[in-house]
């Protein structure tokens, strides 16, 4: 029964040089929407190419066309000068094209090695899966490209940064010599971003071509050799990264010059509107995620909470919002105690909540924009008479809000899922900031939102502050925390380990406190 | 708009495909499908009596279909409409036999049907809200409990050596439709149809025109967002199951108060289970449910009409085919709609 060892794939990213890729005149429509119109893009071997643009500009569509996930309506893809036509991702993969999606496509319960080899598993004569071989191959590949991973750990046990490394390994294992990364830093901490960039530089030096899809200009400036800017489905500019300033890129992306954040009026904060005393919260597993926290947020002030994701910030916000029961401690809103038992009670007491995960909490993808605008406000008397809630009233209520907050398209009858991520976020912000609640919880208020909209949302939050409201801001973007906050709290392992003001600190210092090394960590 | 049109056309395409596939069966038996379908259509829709039969068969299906649909809309799967219907029918008969003055008797019987079914639906709802017990298991198991409960309670009330109650006094009867529309004369269609249509309208208003209905739909689509929006998902689902059970309970009256005027074991004939198919083909929309129920009603009467020439299993096969194709076309249309969107 000794079967001869079957030939195994020999993944070696640097074995042959990355091909030159040319996209010529790609057009792709979705119904009436033109996602890509006559877009061309060249990718030289071993180049890092930044593909930037606002959400909905067509970046991802273009790359999905390149990687065989979408057929173009017209246009040609050339690999090393020869036209190529991919009917599915497997064919593109065979040509050496790999994509790391924004939302990882990993099987949580399977190990790292199993995920990496999925679709091209080393197997025995009778089709049995050779786990040991898979683990050895993956470990060898990881060693070669310097991407440290725990090959036998289940994916569910990995951090987001590690999962991303698994995705990259998976593409390399399948022979990718051109790697497309879609918003790779959206879910990473500053430290993880540094690690990722080190990995990407390493890959580039070994001859892999990279396409970096992003709307964060600092990143693309840091890494890319050349940049292509897209807006509204078209190629609007680009060139060598060294010749394009961040301001110029922003202007190309947005189509006009982006005003810098207006100067903040200094104003003395008023009385505390949100008081948190000795608060402890358990997470889903029953572990103490928030451990005896004290702070308050006063009228006319923005308090920013910085921290590496998973240090209790999410639980803290959910507890204040009434979505997670508190284990201990007191919550007081404008002098009135909150029970911590129901979101409805907290909302009624005067709380607006922009949730961190809009698709899970903040909206219902299968309902219309008008219906989504009423979420959490469905009992407000203005929305209907007595027990009734008519579609007419909902539409009339939603339309001006959609327009005022620039949700595109501002059509109340559309489904939530038909909006881009940034516009979904604008809808949630519109709904919550139009409540006029004295206390605003804003968790990742600009996550996945394009530049123009970020500025608008920031301005709204500052306007809330200037109107005498208390804003608690949670963000993984330190620049956002620094730009908006009057005071900054750093959370680490469920406690507040540092309190400071933007004037007295910088990203580096905050990063050290976030990593739990605040006081001994030099600098 | 285009999306709605696409998705709305799915059930009709499914029916056409099912009839096409059924034609193959009929051909295999050596009969002419066109002729048989023609007979069925003529008998079900072309004559007053046949229309009456179709309406009568459709009445309980509208109600059980609505029952399943409101569950789905709130994110719970009520497989217990059968048991709720049986219990509702039994309760209606018991209340109808109470010594009450005339009009009160009918009102009491209707109320009893809704309450008994509603309680039987609320029970798994509360178990889910309180303990997280899955409603699919509990509603299904409660079907058997309902059968057994009725058989056991029936012991003391059934007529000697039968499995039926005494005939209800006339004041508890729902009049036949033939009394208002002479064309329907002789058919068992009765006023419970009007009740079923009102229930569909009521459910439509509840779901799409009230704050409560909005909350139910939010929970059905995204429970986490419901919680965020100040809605307790468990409570919403328990309430939906109670309403669902009440609708299924009322499904029992078409037979008990409107046709035979007594309760008999086995009267439901699977209408509760067929409600799942009705909701599915009706796309969980109250008006869609009415149309789907009429179709399934016609199918079951049409099967009786032609059962001299084809085995009665043909109707079962057609039912199954419609369900299969409904699921398949639904998926295809979803994809098409997404591609066009």
Overall SS class of chain B = mainly alpha
- Shape verdict of chain A: globular
Question: Would you tell me the overall average pLDDT of chain B?
Answer: 93
Biggest sheet statistics of chain B: none
What is the SS-derived class of chain A? Answer: alpha/beta
Number of helices of chain A: 17
Please report the number of helical segments of chain B: 14
- Number of DSSP strand runs of chain B: 0
- Sheet having the most strands of chain A: 6 strands, mixed
State the separation between the terminal residues of chain B, measured CA to CA: 10 Å
Could you tell me the strand content of chain B as a percent range?
under 5%
Spatial extent as radius of gyration of chain B: 20 Å
**Largest interface, counted by CB within 8 Å of the partner chain's CB:** A-B, 32 and 24 residues
- Low-confidence sequence ranges of chain A: 5-15
SSE run of chain B: HHHHHHHHHHHHHH
Helix content of chain B: over 70%
Numbering strands along the chain, what is their spatial order in the largest sheet of chain A? 6-7-8-3-9-10
Q: In angstroms, what is the radius of gyration of chain A? A: 25 Å
Shape of chain B: globular
């Amino acid at each position: 029964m000794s079967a001869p060892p079957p030939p195994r794939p020999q993944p070696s990213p640097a074995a042959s040089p990355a091909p030159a890729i040319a996209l010529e005149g790609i057009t792709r429509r979705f119904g009436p929407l033109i996602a890509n119109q006559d877009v061309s893009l060249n990718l030289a071997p071993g180049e890092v190419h930044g593909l930037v643009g606002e959400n909905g500009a067509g970046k991802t569509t273009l790359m999905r066309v390149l990687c065989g996930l979408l057929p173009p309506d017209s246009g040609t893809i050339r690999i090393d000068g020869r036209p190529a036509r991919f009917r599915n991702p497997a064919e593109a993969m065979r040509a050496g094209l790999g994509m790391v999606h924004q939302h990882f496509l990993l099987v949580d319960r399977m190990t790292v090695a199993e995920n990496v080899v999925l679709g091209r598993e080393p197997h025995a004569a009778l089709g049995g899966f050779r786990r040991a071989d898979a683990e050895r191959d993956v470990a060898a590949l990881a060693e070669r490209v310097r991407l440290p991973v725990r090959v036998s750990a289940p994916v569910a046990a990995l951090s987001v940064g590690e999962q991303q490394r698994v995705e990259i390994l998976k593409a390399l294992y399948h022979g990718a010599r051109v790697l497309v990364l879609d918003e790779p830093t959206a879910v990473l901490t500053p430290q993880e971003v540094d690690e990722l960039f080190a990995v990407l530089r390493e890959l580039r030096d070994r001859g892999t071509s990279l396409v970096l899809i992003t709307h964060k200009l600092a990143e693309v400036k840091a890494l890319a050799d050349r940049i292509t800017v897209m807006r509204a489905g078209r190629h609007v500019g680009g060139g060598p990264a060294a010749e394009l300033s961040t301001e110029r890129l922003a202007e190309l992306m947005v189509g006009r010059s982006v005003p810098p954040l207006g100067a903040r009026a200094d104003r003395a904060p008023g009385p505390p509107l949100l008081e948190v005393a000795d608060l402890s919260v358990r997470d889903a597993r029953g572990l103490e995620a928030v451990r005896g926290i004290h702070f308050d947020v006063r009228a006319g002030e923005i308090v920013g909470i910085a921290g590496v994701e998973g240090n209790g910030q999410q639980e803290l916000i959910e507890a204040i919002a009434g979505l997670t029961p508190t284990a201990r401690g007191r919550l007081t809103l404008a002098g009135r105690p909150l029970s911590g038992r129901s979101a409805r009670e907290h909302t009624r007491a005067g709380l607006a909540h922009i949730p961190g995960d809009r698709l899970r909490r903040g909206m219902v993808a299968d309902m219309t924009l008008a219906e989504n605008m009423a979420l959490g406000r469905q009992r407000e008397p203005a929305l209907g008479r007595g027990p009734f809630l008519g579609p007419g009233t909902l539409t009339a209520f939603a339309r001006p809000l959609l327009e005022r907050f620039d949700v595109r398209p501002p059509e109340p009858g559309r489904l939530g899922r038909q909006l881009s991520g940034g516009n979904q976020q604008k809808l949630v912000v519109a709904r919550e900031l139009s409540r006029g609640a004295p206390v605003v919880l804003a968790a990742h208020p600009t996550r996945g939102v394009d530049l123009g909209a970020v500025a608008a949302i920031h301005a709204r939050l500052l306007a809330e502050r200037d109107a005498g409201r208390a804003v608690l801001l949670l963000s993984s973007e330190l620049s956002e925390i620094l730009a908006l906050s009057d005071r900054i709290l750093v959370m680490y392992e469920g406690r507040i380990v540092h309190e400071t003001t933007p004037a007295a600190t910088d990203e580096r210092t905050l990063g050290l406190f976030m990593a739990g090394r605040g006081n001994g960590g030099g600098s | 708009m285009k999306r709605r049109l696409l998705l709305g056309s799915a059930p009709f395409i499914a029916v056409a495909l099912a009839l096409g596939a059924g034609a193959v069966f009929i051909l295999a038996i050596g009969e002419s499908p066109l002729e048989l379908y023609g007979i069925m259509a003529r008998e079900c829709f072309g004559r007053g009596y046949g229309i009456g039969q179709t309406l009568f068969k459709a009445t309980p299906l509208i109600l059980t279909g609505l029952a399943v649909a409101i569950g789905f809309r709130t994110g719970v799967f009520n497989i217990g409409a059968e048991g709720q219907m049986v219990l509702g029918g039994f309760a209606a008969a018991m209340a109808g036999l109470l010594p009450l003055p005339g009009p009160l008797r009918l009102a009491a019987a209707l109320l009893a049907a809704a309450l008994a079914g509603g309680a039987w639906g609320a029970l798994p709802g509360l178990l889910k809200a309180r303990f997280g017990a899955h409603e699919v298991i509990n509603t299904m198991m409660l079907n058997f409990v309902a059968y057994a409960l009725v058989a056991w309670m029936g012991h003391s009330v059934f007529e000697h050596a039968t499995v039926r109650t005494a005939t209800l006094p006339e004041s508890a009867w729902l009049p036949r439709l033939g009394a208002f529309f002479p064309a329907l004369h002789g058919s068992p269609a009765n006023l419970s149809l009007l009740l079923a249509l009102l229930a569909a309208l009521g459910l439509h208003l509840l779901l799409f025109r009230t704050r409560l209905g909005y909350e139910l739909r939010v929970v059905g689509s995204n429970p986490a967002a419901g919680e965020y929006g100040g809605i307790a998902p468990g409570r919403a689902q328990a309430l939906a199951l109670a309403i669902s059970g009440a609708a299924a309970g009322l499904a029992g009256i078409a037979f008990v108060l409107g046709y035979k005027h007594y309760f008999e074991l086995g009267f439901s004939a699977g209408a509760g289970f067929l409600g799942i198919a009705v909701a599915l083909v009706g796309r969980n929309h109250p008006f869609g449910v009415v149309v789907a129920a009429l179709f399934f009603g016609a199918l079951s009467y049409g099967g009786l009409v032609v059962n001299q020439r084809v085995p009665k299993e043909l109707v079962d096969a057609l039912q199954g085919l419609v369900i299969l194709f409904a699921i398949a076309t639904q998926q295809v249309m979803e994809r098409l709609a997404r591609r066009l969107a």
